[in-house]
Amino acid sequence: MAVPRTLVVATKNPGKAREFAKSFASSGITIHTLLDYPNAQQVNETGTTFEENARLKADHFAHVLQLPVLADDSGLMVDALHGQPGIRSARFAGDHNDAANNAKLLVEMGGMPEEQRGATFHSTLVMAWPDRPADDLVVVGETRGQILTVPRGDNQFGYDPLFFYPPKQKSFAEMSPDEKNEISHRGLALKKLAIVWPDWWQKEEAK
Length: 207
Ligand SMILES: O=P(O)(O)OP(=O)(O)OP(=O)(O)OC[C@H]1O[C@@H](n2cnc3c(O)ncnc32)[C@H](O)[C@@H]1O
Ligand SMILES: [Mg+2]
Prior knowledge:
The chain is about 35% helix and about 20% strand. It has about 210 residues and is of the alpha/beta class. Magnesium ion (MG) binds near residues 45 and 90.
């Protein structure tokens, strides 16, 4: 079997889950997430880079579930904030609260002119086979955009209402999942993953 019919994505974030589901559906693959494994022991994201945190999540949940697992660690790096919130994106305003995080971002960017509102969205994806961390598959994707002064769009996933993508003249929150996957940090990483993971999977399965 080159690729499986179902794949576990080690995330509790429903926005990510929706995007993964859309992306893998085109290959006939159904996604399960940590919402399907409510009793799985959690892991602290103690890494200092996106890759360390993505590896932590992928390796931990592959071990706990004894299944191959895909994990994503992602975040927003704002030029004028010297790359913050970066790997702290989920907890920028203290706890994991999208509205509070967005409010804090708007305050910190207050009065900043348009030419200084550049930002990069980053995603690192790691696919892990149970108990073989040395074999982890790692891909990254990044998208440049601008931080808006007022939220735009209905998609309430994280910083999407404040992230404007100039080539489409839309915020991420104004895009459908398919439209966002075409150009987003996660979508670009998923395109790279699609090229490499069937061979990787076949090799791991044969070991
Ligand atoms: O760790 P998991 O369970 O996957 O979910 P999480 O929400 O905690 O995810 P991260 O640790 O990777 O933190 C990344 C944060 O960055 C934000 N983020 C990442 N990708 C995003 C996207 O495509 N659109 C909007 N916000 C995004 C969002 O607020 C996330 O909470
Ligand atoms: Mg997290």
